[in-house]
Amino acid sequence: MTQPTVDPADALAELGRIRLDEISLDDMLRRIADLANRSVPGTRDVSVTLVRGQANWTAAFTGDLACQLDEWQYEQHRGPCLDASASGDSISVPDMGAEQRWPAWAAMARTAGVGSSLSIGLPIQGSVVGALNVYGGAANAFDPAAIANAERFAAYAAVALANAHLYESAATLADQMQDAMRKRAVIEQAKGIIIGERRCSPEEAFALLSKISQDTNRKVRDVAEALVNQAVRRSRA
Fold first, then answer.
1. Of the residues 73, 189, 207, 226, which has the maximum number of CB atoms within 10 A of its CB?
2. pLDDT tens digit string along 33-53?
3. What are the residues whose beta carbons fall under 8 Å from the beta carbon of 167, sequence distance 6 or more?
């Protein structure tokens, strides 16, 4: 059995120390795969499957073999990583040579040098689910203690991923709101310029911006920005 290079307790502690403002979701996924690979006894390779609706993909992996075994399942629309993602359960394949649920996939895995696997569901957030996939080089690579360690790690990883997903979504929303506010500020500036020059109402100023936008096939925000820049250049001349 492959011995871990990181104590399982230390792996959990490292997950807990990750600061969401210092790491992207992709980096978090890679860190999870790497920590699982180094802390679960019997592991050869690890991958993380994510599922959103009908889309399945391997978001992180420690070796090409894990990615290839995942991809075969996505192409066939069946396999332990997909079932674990859908159910949230742990699905063990103790011996690829005796596997009857997915015999074609198991035969390919055995030919590639994988004797067993363990897929653990990761309920992440909302419409996104996934699985931590642990592949062993030998049959029966994961004894009950190793399975318990993997499930404990996956539970911590699911919380970390859910928090990272929420943080990234919130950060994206904040960026979108700031961008919208910047656009609105430019439009308001342009309206002010038009009102000053034409002695018209705010509604009439916006109607003029909209007409120029339609006539020139440009966004209202771009028209407004051009008008503001033109006014700035005139003031400096």
1. 73
2. 999 999 999 999 999 998 888
3. 20, 21
